[in-house]
Amino acid sequence: MPQTVSGLAIARQIVRSGTSPSANYRAACLAKSDKDFINKLKMVEEELDETCHWLEIIMRSEMVKESRMKPLHQECCELLNIIAKSIVTTKTRMTSDEMAKSNKS
Exposed, middle or buried: residue 20 (CB in 10 Å: 0-12, 13-18, 19+)? Predict the structure, then answer.
């Protein structure tokens, strides 16, 4: 990153949003319930989305060569898609479980 005010500010944002998903995912793995799991995964999703945003800003502004940033951006987007699908899958399972319980009643 360039040693400019904007370069340093974006670098700090990337460090924050780029490291947070792993800690939040670890917390999700220890969730007390499905709702808790989803809430923690939503935090992971938000941080990954923010990281993707900053990587896009870096590429568009040409602060760093796109060829260096593109693989990072692609991996971030792939992780974001995985987490989003995990949220949907868990919500679908929760709905199915609730319907099965109500049918037994």
Answer: middle
